[in-house]
Amino acid sequence: MKRIIALTVILMFTLMTPHYAASAATPKMMAYVDKNSHSFIPVGLLKTYDGVKVSYKASEKKLDISSENTQLTLNLGSRTAYVDGKKVTLKAAPFSENGSTYVPLQFIQQYLGFKSSWGSNRATVSLTDGTSIHTLPVLSGKFIPSNSNPVTSQRKTFKVGSRSFQANVVTVSLLHPKVNLDVVLAGNKAGKVEDLRSMAKRSNAVVAINGTFFDAYTSGAYKAPYGYLISQGNILHKASGDNRTIFTYDHNNLASMIPGLDFKAVYDSGRMSGALQAGPRLLTDGKVTLDVKKEGFKDPKILTGGGARSALGITKDHKLILLTTGGATIPQLAEIMKQAGAYQAMNLDGGASSGLYYNGSYITTPGRQISNAIVVKYK
Question: What is the three-state SS of 236-304?
Answer without folding.
Answer: EECCCCCCCCEEEECCCCCEEEECHHHHHHHHHCCCCCEEEECCCEEEECCEECCCCCCCCCCCHHHHC
